[in-house]
Structure formats: C-alpha cells, structure tokens
Specification:
With 666 residues, the protein is mainly β. It folds into 3 domains: 14-434, Neuraminidase (6 Propeller); 439-543, Immunoglobulins (Immunoglobulin-like, Sandwich); 551-664, Immunoglobulin-like (Sandwich), CATH 2.60.40.10. The strands form 11 sheets. Strands 1, 2, 3, 9, 10, 11, 12 and 14 form an 8-stranded mixed β-sheet that branches. Strands 4-28-27-26-25-24-23 form a 7-stranded antiparallel β-sheet. Strands 13, 15, 16, 17 and 18 form a 5-stranded antiparallel β-sheet that branches.
C-alpha cells in the first residue's frame, strides 16, 4: 500500500471450497479449469474474473499436518546468491505487478503472492491477488494462479497488498489483503458495512490444502473497535505466529490504520483461536506506515515500521503482552530507509527461547535515505540491538521486499526490482553469502575535542572504546578492528586476536576529524574483520557547541567510492536545537533535495528545545568539474526563526563543507 506513495500438470477438472461461516462476512471461492475463477461476496453480485487465471493443483488437495515445521537457516551452506524473475510487467495478463508476499506452506512448498494490477494503480484499482508455487525450494516455479480476483467492470472491486501467515499448529494458511470498491486508504470513510463502497475493507483468504484452494472473508467489523478508525490495511509480506511464553500459538498480522483525526498508527491484529476470530490491539505511534513484527529471543515482540513522517530511519517499539500494546516508539538510525516497506524475521524460528540462535535477526529494505535503491539484507546477533553485517543484493532500484527461511536452510527474498517498476523477483541466498561475523560490536559515544589551531581551522580528536563479543559457539580469530567516519576523517585500527565462545574484548581507538569541523553530532563506523567476513556498528560522536550557538548543524557525506558524471552523492545534516525555545529552521544552499519548499525533510517549522532531526534528502550531482578538482564542497545557510518559517529571524548559520573527495570511475 503506497501511503504517500504453481504446479500445472494433472489439474483437476474442478475445485470448490466453501468456508463461509454463520454470522461472518464472507465469500465463496469457486473455480473450474478453463473458466474464470469467480469470487462472489455475500450480498454482492457475482464477480467477473481477472485475465486468464488458472486454478492450482497437481493432485487432489492434501490436508496439512497437525503441527508443521518451522524452517531454520543453516550456517553450513556454502556462499551463494541466485535470482529468478516471477512476474514481468505486461506478461501473464497484467500490465503491472507489485507488492510481494512470501511464505513456506506446511508441506514445504514455497508460496509467492503479489498484486496483479490491470490499471497499474494501488487500491481502489480492480487488482487481483496472485500466487506462484515452487515445489523445489525456489529453484523452479509453477504457473501464476489466483488467490482472489478483482473485477474490472462496473461495479468494480479490487484486492491489494497480500501478506501470509501460516498457522504451524493447524497447517492453515492465511493471505491478508485489502478489499476496495471506490476508495483507497486516504479516501476511506468511517464504517464497516460492505454496502458502503467508500470503506476500505480488511479481507483475508484462507487455505487448508497448502495454498492450492482458497476461501475468503471480510474482517473489517472484527478489527475496527472504534468508529474513529476510518481506514486500515494489512502490511504486505508475512505475519508471525508466536512461539514463546503465555501467548505461544497466537497469530499476529500488522496493520496500519488512519483515524478521523488524520493520524497514521500501527496496530497488531491477532487471533488466539487459530483464525476463527480476530482482534485489534492498541494503536501505537504517529506518522506510522507499513510495519512488521518479530518475536525476540525472550518472547518480546519488536515492531519495525516505515516512517511516513520522513525521518529516513525505521521506527521501533516493543510489546511484552503479545502485541496487544506497545511501548514508546523510537528511531533506529542504524537502519536507513527512504520511507519504504521492509521485512524483519528470526533466522532460526525454531530455536529454543533465550538461545543464541534465537537472537539472530535478518532485515531487508532499500538501504538508502534518498531513493528506493540499494536493496540490502542485514543481520543482527543480539535481537536487533545492533546490526553486525550487511550485503547489497540490488545496487539499483529496489522497492518492497520480504524474507522467509526455507526448508534447505537458505533464505528466500521476494522483492520489487527497478524501484517498484520491474515486476516481482525471487532470490535465494545463504547466511554465508552475507559474510557477517557472529560478533556483536558496541561502542561508547565519543566526545570530540578541538586541536590547538582554533575552532575554524583545527581538527578534532576523540578516543572511542569498542567492545567485541563472540556470540557463536566456536572460537573466532579476528584480524583487525577499525574506526572510521567518512571522507576526510582519519581512524585508527588495531589487531584483535582470538575470541573464545562468549568472550568479550575492549579496544580503544582514536579518531581525528577534518579541519574546520563545526559543532554538532556525527556518526562513526566500527568494523571488525576476519578474512572476507566482517561485522559493523555505528557510534555517536559529538563536538560540543560554544555557548553562543543556539543550534548545531553537523554535515556528514556518505563514502562515495568511484563515481561518474551524473552520479548522486548524499550529504546528511544532523540538526540539534540547544536553546530553550522552539525554533524554525530554513535551509538554503547549493544542494538538491535541500531547500524549501521542495526538500522533503531538511527544513523544520517548529523544532522543540532540546530536540534534533536529520536532513537526509540533500545530494550533489557529480560534474566533470568536480572530478577534475577531485571533489566538491557543499555550501549551505540555515536561518533560525521564532514563530515558524516566516517568523522573526534571530540568527543565520553558514555551514560550508566538508570537502567531499571524489574518485573517477575507470
């Protein structure tokens, strides 16, 4: 949901499922080979089908096992990464495909679901929920089939944004999605009646035969406890089933809701009776969006959300009551994000509670603060407190992605290439491909001190104490640990030696800044390496402000590597209000994505005393002159005003620099 923004042989001659229940809003799924798949909502006229659907099945439906397996990743697989295109725009009956969901059925088949969009648009487009199946762990895929079909003729109906949950105790599979008529997420009005075509509904389809046949129902009335919740949609990808503690067995699917007051909030929708009924928990946060949850090693649920407020980081909150309520929402700036959907899961979902393997998390998203690019998978060995390693799987455009652990110990990744314009693509990779050491890296914040040449020209230095901890069950021989902080900074590196299982070691490293550093908050990067494998962590650095400075503005450029003319180089500014008043920040300068009114997040109309924000959308486009000069120097000014953007001007800060060195690609 954009809030800004199969086997084919031996097909049976018919397949029919009726899962409507008394007192429930539901529909029946009826399919025959060679005919359209028809979905008729109760009290609605019969549906017309999407283009050329196929009823799935290579054999009569097989009942799911009473208690199916969770599939853990494997450390022993060799390093590999491979891809398969599953849906190409303009082929298979639809001009556009979007929104990936991925899971493993109880029998071990891999299921990939996504939108088929006949008009190319989100809800309320007449979209269909589609599916492909792999019976060999993602090496090959069957024909595209239909989970639930939209209606393109009047009165139109559409289904969008799939998300799977597999009940590992009963073997039933759920595919959540929205049901739309005439309105999408922002146009939806209050109510839960199917007769109201202006309500965006919460729907789901369910399967008891490993996703071969499906029946559907609408649960809007069950999960709308307050009339002020006027819109809702399930976050696409995959929900979870809790494994630990008093709520073990609970099914949890994340939703985003919009209230009559205009707030966007996250909420867990859950079932304690294997999907017979659903309840909504207490909404959390503001400026939320598509959000996911993962059960941590102690049974706590961590919520990880896209931020519609534009922080360019992930919002995080925790629940200790199985997702009914969540605590304070904070930002995890170790997870850069361009306001996009993402995925998080345990790499070892069957690991014992509290074990080291239960703490291993995987996260995928577009690892950029400026665009839906740089598709990245990250790994954490400590329940998401730190993210120790990462690897880019798509350097170009990459929008939504979702992860699943597979029966052979590899990890499945379903994503949208070309920034959401390239259909649906599946990838398989191993933990070894990530190249991450099972070492947690934590660093104490560093206080920078200026040198003797004066604030305008002198460099600043600090010592940072780093703690390295071996979280594996084997001894690790580590080569070196290094501290860095971007172009122009000079960091120290030292040898480490061998860490026994569970052993920790503290290392002190020195860091020196470029000359002309301005007061403010900066970010350093600590990397520990052993051969080709490494783990990383960020560290907060601060150069204290002089007494007269009301606001600090600290610039930091991304490492560029080799660049060519036309490449974009991001420059990030961390802005902190150190005064006792609420101030407006009005930035101007020679960067793109920076000055008002076009800049998404660099200005700030009312920054409270003691508060900070990150300007993460500024960038410079490399020119031939830049390459000839060996770099560029950003030039910016920041007006401080009282009373909003047009209020009284009290100070102007000029922040030129730092020099960003560039190396021309050869």
């Amino acid at each position: 949901m954009l809030t800004s923004s199969g086997r084919t042989s031996n097909v049976p001659t018919s397949a029919r499922v009726d899962r409507s229940r008394p007192g429930r809003l539901g529909w029946r799924v009826v399919g025959t080979v060679g005919a359209s798949l028809a979905l008729a909502a109760v009290s609605l006229v019969p549906a017309q089908a999407a283009p050329s659907p196929v009823v799935e099945g290579s054999q009569p439906p097989v009942a799911a096992s009473a208690a199916s397996t969770q599939y853990d990743a494997s450390w022993s697989l060799p390093s590999f990464y491979e891809e398969t295109q599953l849906a190409t725009n303009g082929q298979g009956g639809f001009p556009n495909y979007r929104i990936p969901a991925l899971t493993v059925a109880p029998n071990g088949d891999l299921l990939a679901s996504y939108d088929g969009r006949p008009t190319g648009g989100d809800a309320p487009g007449p979209n269909s929920i589609l599916q492909r199946r792999s019976t060999d762990g993602g090496k090959s895929w069957g024909t595209q089939t239909v989970v639930t079909a939209g209606v393109t003729s009047a009165p139109k109906r559409g289904y969008s944004d799939p998300s799977y949950i597999v009940d590992r105790e009963t073997g039933e599979i759920f595919n959540f999605h929205v049901l739309s008529f005439d309105q999408g997420f922002f146009g939806s009005t209050a109510g839960t009646s199917l007769e109201n075509r202006n309500v965006l509904h919460a729907a789901l389809s369910r399967s008891s035969d490993n996703g071969v046949t499906w029946s559907g129902e609408v649960i809007t009335d069950q999960i709308t406890p307050q009339a002020g919740w006027i819109s809702r949609f399930a976050a696409s990808g995959q929900g979870i089933q809790l494994r630990y503690g008093p709520h073990a067995g609970r099914l949890v699917q994340q939703f985003t809701i919009r209230t009559s007051a205009g707030a966007l909030q996250a909420v867990s929708v859950y079932s304690d009776d294997h999907g017979a009924s659903w309840k909504a928990g207490t909404p959390v946060g503001t400026g939320m969006d598509e959000n996911k949850t993962v059960e941590l090693s102690d049974g706590t649920i961590m919520l990880n959300s896209r931020d519609s407020a534009g922080s360019k980081a992930r919002k995080v909150a925790y629940s200790t009551d199985g997702g009914v309520s969540y605590g304070e929402v904070t930002l995890d700036r170790n997870l850069p994000d361009p306001t996009n959907n993402a995925s998080v899961l345990r790499a070892f979902p069957d690991a014992p509670q509290g074990s080291a393997e239960a703490k291993v998390l995987l996260f995928s998203n577009a690892g950029s603060t400026s665009s839906r690019t740089n598709g990245t998978v990250r790994i954490s060995f400590d329940d998401g407190k730190t993210w120790s390693g990462s690897r880019v799987f798509q350097t170009g455009g990459m929008a939504y992605s979702t992860l699943a652990t597979l029966p052979d110990g590899s990890i499945g990744l379903l994503y949208e290439p070309d920034g959401g314009n390239g259909g649906i693509r599946f990838a398989r990779f191993s933990l070894a491909w990530l190249g991450a050491l099972p070492v947690t890296v934590t660093a104490e914040a560093g206080e920078l001190e200026l040198g003797t040449h004066g604030k305008a020209n002198g460099a600043a230095t600090t010592d940072v104490t780093v703690t390295l901890s071996n979280v594996s069950s084997s001894a690790l021989k580590l080569d070196r640990v290094a501290l860095a902080a971007g172009p122009g900074w000079t960091g120290e590196d030292k040898g480490v030696g061998t860490l026994r299982p569970g052993q920790s070691k503290r290392v002190k490293l020195k860091l020196t800044s470029p000359r002309g550093l301005h007061a403010g908050d900066y970010i350093g990067l600590v990397t520990v390496a052993a051969g080709a494998e490494s783990s990383t962590s960020k560290v907060a650095l601060n150069l204290p402000a002089a007494g007269e400075e009301l606001v600090t503005v600290a610039a930091q450029a991304e490492g560029t590597g080799e660049v060519s003319v036309g490449d974009k180089v991001a420059v990030t500014y961390r802005v902190s209000n150190r005064s006792q008043a609420t101030l407006a920040l009005v930035p101007t300068g020679d960067l793109s994505g920076f000055s008002r009114p076009s800049a998404p997040n660099c200005g700030y109309s009312a920054l409270a005393a003691g508060s900070s924000y990150t300007c993460a959308t500024a960038f410079h486009t490399v020119t031939a002159a830049d390459l000839a000069a060996g770099g560029f120097t950003p030039s910016t000014s920041w007006e401080l005003r009282v009373g909003g953007y047009s209020g009284t001007l009290i100070q102007t800060l000029r922040r030129n620099g730092p020099l960003v060195p560039l190396t021309e690609a050869r």
